Amino acid sequence: MEYTQKEAGFLPQFGEFIGARTAFLGSLAIISVFFPFINKRFQTIPVEAYGIDDGVFNILPPTLITVIATIVAFIAVISIFSMRGSYRGRGKRDARRKAWISITVSMANLVAYLIIYKIYRMYIYPVVNISVDDLRKLFFEAPLLLVYTTFYSHLTQTLMLVAMTKFYR
Length: 169
What we know:
By secondary structure, the chain is mainly alpha-helical. Helices cover 70% and strands 0% of the residues. It has one domain. α5 (62-82) packs parallel to α7 (138-167). The two termini are 19 Å apart.
């Protein structure tokens, strides 16, 4: 597949993607990379250290979890935009289908995170006799990190795919 001179530059086209052609959706897709930091500020999804507001994270600090989720979401943005040529023509239908799958995965991960977090907070700490600095807690915190990161990366992926369909309209 040949690309024209206009399509050759990643950064100029990325600026155009964020700019006027997709306006709200492109900007929202880029801002969604920072949703974990926004969540850390407003605490809509619980991510707290042990002993603070019924937090569960002891080995993995909440700031590290936020940074990891942000980096993974950023990688999702770059990877989807690098495949921008495949979202033209018939590829738009595929992008819409992938967006629906991605939002479904994202919401399922959000529900799973909240359930695991609540189970961990209510049952694991009181029932399992583990000291405060025991590394076995990582066994319980790692799945929370994975599900939290997957939620934000798929949310970002959904917004990017929808914005890409608008970008090539």
